[in-house]
Amino acid sequence: MPTYAILGATGKTGGAILDHLIKAPNTNINAYVRSKAKLLEQQPGLEKNQNVKIFEGPVSDIPLIASTLSPSVDAAFCVVAINENTPGLRIAQDTANSVIAALCHLRNKDVNFRPPKLLFLSSAALNATMAGEFNPVLKAAISRAMSHLYADLGFAEQNLRLHQSWLDVTFVQPGGLTPDVQKGHKLSVDKASDLVSYPDLAAGMIEIAQSGTYSWMGVSVNATAKDVKFEPNAPPQLLRGLVWHYLPWLYWTCRSLRVVS
Fold it and tell me: Which of 61, 102, 196, 233 has the fewest Cβ atoms surrounding its Cβ within 10 A?
């Protein structure tokens, strides 16, 4: 019976992965969240599912993350993320650091410990081959509107690659994400579709986990449908991102005044 860990099970990607896995027969799930109450609000009755174990706490709690990544876990979906271009963002780096520390702890306890395959959610914008397919004007605008987020993902990837000798990591690098329904997906290592829904991204990540391939590669999950709906909140989100890129001090001022979180 396979066991999967989801780090960030209340997020849009993590929630979609959880939706897929709880429907799969004979599958154990370790769900890490910062708020158990939020998870149970999203997934009523989940606590009664005997195949699901919930781990709650800060991502900096190394023993907790180690328990989530217990020796029985076959693959772990690292999808702790936010979609805002927040100055000083470190959520990807902190997640990567905690996962590495937790796996080191487990390896020190048992010399025969076999780390799970890690699927780390990233972005096609960090993949030179995939990003080369984008419209150059749109690419330039998005790279600025998501500059802090991309920097965080880039540093996290650099840290993970320092452990290439003993870890197995796949960087999942989709294009734009949107809350559309599942319509079908395909995997690619050289091209990213403009948009893909969270349910299709989740299905693709599970396919990668089950394939046992794509070690230390960037892989995009692409939509096969042509009618994927656009994320309606994207324009104001990108506008905020541009403001925080060019005027990061304004973000900190707004935060001090509790205008933004």
Answer: 233
CA 119 to chain centre: 8
Report the amino acid identity of residue 204: G
Q: Per residue, what are the HEC states of the chain?
A: CCEEEEECCCCHHHHHHHHHHHCCCCCEEEEEECCHHHHHHHCCCHHHCCCEEEEECCCCCHHHHHHHCCCCCCEEEECCCCCCCCCCCCHHHHHHHHHHHHHHHHHHHCCCCCCCEEEEECCHHHCHHHHCCCCHHHHHHHHHHCHHHHHHHHHHHHHHHCCCCCCCEEEECCCEEECCCCCCEEEECCCCCCEEEHHHHHHHHHHHHHHCCCCCCEEEEEECCCCCCCCCCHHHHHHHHHHHHHCHHHHHHHHHCCCCC
Which of 209, 185, 210 is CA-nearest to residue 197?
185
State the sign of the Cα–Cα–Cα–Cα dihedral 166, 189, 136, 174: negative
Rounded to 5 degrees, what are φ and ψ at 178?
-145, 145
121: nearest Cα among 188, 202, 180, 211: 202
Token pair for 122: 């990233």
**pTM exceeds 0.90, yes or no:** yes
Burial label, 237 (beta-carbon count in 10 A; 0-12, 13-18, 19+): middle
CA-closest candidate to residue 222, choices 243, 240, 201, 205: 201
The model's pLDDT over 144-203, given as tens digits with 9 standing for 90+, comes to: 999 999 999 999 999 999 999 999 999 999 999 999 999 999 999 999 988 999 999 999
Residue-level pLDDT at 137: 86
